[in-house]
Design brief:
Distance between the termini: 12 Å
CATH superfamily of the largest domain: Multidrug efflux transporter AcrB transmembrane domain
Number of helices: 13
Structural class: alpha+beta
Shape: elongated
Order of helices and strands: HHEHEEHEEHEEHHEEHEEEEEEHEHHHH
Strand content: 15-25%
Number of domains: 4
Number of strands: 16
Largest sheet: 4 strands, antiparallel
CATH architecture of the largest domain: Up-down Bundle
């Protein structure tokens, strides 16, 4: 074997350069994230139904959902937490089960009983994966803006704009206030005009909607017709017609007090002593965290400069990529410090520049082989892989110094003087 490497120096040198190039290529292609992409055998089902009491939620929502989920093959255990207006069900599957298939089966079982649930029940199904956690967080604050206005800016300006970044899965808006129209009925006026609450409910249900009425064909053109009955302001709602008997048009403002109010919120966000709105960025599974962070940062700069209203600004409070960059920087620092110290040790104690060159080549080659292996196996940069690389650099340097020192020591023995280095090694 030793004669093979000695007689094929040039091909071996080419192979070493290929390994280094492959390591650089793998480094540039590998994805980055804070945690490994590990999917746990757990599916979470969250149901929301307004302000329903706990006892009613248990009977009408939690129990039917549990019975539906129990029909899914591979289910090991099921747990639920029910609170006012919501319930959270955790379905634990077997470790060998295909979690994506199990998620589809859970969704299918829930769809079969969805008509039995109370109207307006919103259900979300998620598999437990680190990618469901936000990777970037921003605070929106606006001088002279109400919580309702900031919430609208976040939902209708910031959210669509940041969603354009490749690799972004979801933009979540947390906090703020949502505008509502409150209608306070006047019983005496209703009694005098023979108006019942059911009449008002019917009139309100027939407004504030957008629907398609069909289309019209005109030779080579098609015209789509849409009915827009959305309530856009307070005056439109006040003038809503409740009844019309041909003699008198009865409007909502004649029997009720209509005003603009804020929807009841159960989450309050405070930043630097002031009410604010949070915008959380969720990335797609296996997307590059560093690339997404850079893309979102560019969009935020554009928003702050030219798009957001005057006085409104976005500022970051959590950037997950900073932890990954710190880990990469730690690996780089360990590599350079280790190389410098190893060369100093070899020069001082072995008095040989060639020995230092061997160590200088060994460490980059080993790191390159590691990166190529990680890339082929589908791993990414995260705190686990980067921590392992940083820890292994010390072992590589230690082993390289020991091996080189032994070879140099044997080579300098009187019996080995004049012999080829390959024979001594």
């Amino acid at each position: 074997m030793k004669s093979f490497f000695v007689s094929h120096k040039n091909p071996v040198t080419v192979v070493l350069f290929i390994i280094l190039a492959a390591g650089i290529f793998s480094y540039n292609k590998m994805q980055s994230s804070l945690f490994p992409e590990v999917t746990f055998p757990k599916i979470k089902v969250i149901a929301d139904n307004g302000l329903q009491p706990v006892s009613k939620m248990m009977i009408t929502v939690t129990k039917p959902l549990e019975n539906a989920i129990k029909r899914v093959p591979g289910l090991k255990n099921i747990r639920s937490i029910t609170s006012r207006g919501s319930c959270e069900i955790s379905a634990f599957m077997g470790w060998k089960e295909d979690i994506d298939l199990c998620k589809q089966q859970v969704e299918s079982s829930i769809n079969q009983i969805k008509e039995e649930l109370p109207p307006g029940t919103n259900i979300t199904v998620e598999k437990m994966n680190p990618s469901i956690l936000p990777v970037i967080g921003y605070v929106i604050k606006g001088e002279g803006k109400s919580n309702i206005e900031i919430n609208q800016i976040a939902n209708y300006i910031v959210k669509p704009y940041l969603s354009q970044v490749p690799g972004v899965s979801e933009i979540r808006v947390i906090g703020g206030k949502t505008k509502e129209f409150h209608v306070e009925l006047q019983p005496q006026k209703m009694s005098a005009l023979s108006v019942t609450p059911a009449m008002i409910t019917t009139a309100l249900s027939q407004s504030n909607f957008i629907s398609s009425n069909g289309y019209l064909n005109d030779y080579n053109r098609m015209y789509l017709t849409v009915t827009d009955a959305n309530v856009k302001n307070l005056e439109e709602l006040q003038n809503l017609t409740i009844s019309n008997n041909g003699k008198r048009v009865l409007r909502l403002q004649d029997i009720a007090i209509v005003k603009i109010a804020e929807q009841t919120e159960y989450v309050r966000i405070n930043a630097n002593g002031e009410d604010a709105v949070l915008v959380a960025v969720v990335k797609q599974p296996n997307a590059n965290l560093i690339t997404i962070t850079d893309g979102v940062a560019k969009k935020v700069v554009e928003l702050n400069k030219t798009i957001l209203p005057q006085g409104v600004s976005l500022s970051s409070y959590y950037v997950q990529a900073d932890f990954v960059n710190d880990s990469i920087r730690s690996v780089s620092d360990s590599l350079w410090i280790g190389l410098v110290l190893a060369i100093i040790v070899c020069v001082i104690f072995l008095r040989s520049l060639k020995s230092s060159a061997v160590i200088l080549i060994t460490i980059p080659l080993t790191i390159s082989l590691t990166l190529v292996s990680l890339y082929i196996l589908g791993y990414n940069f995260n705190i686990m892989t980067l921590g392992a690389i940083a820890a292994s650099i010390g072992l590589i340097i230690d082993d390289a110094i020991v091996v080189v020192e032994q070879i140099v020591r044997h080579f300098r023995l009187p019996d080995n003087r004049g012999r080829p280095l390959a024979d001594v090694a």
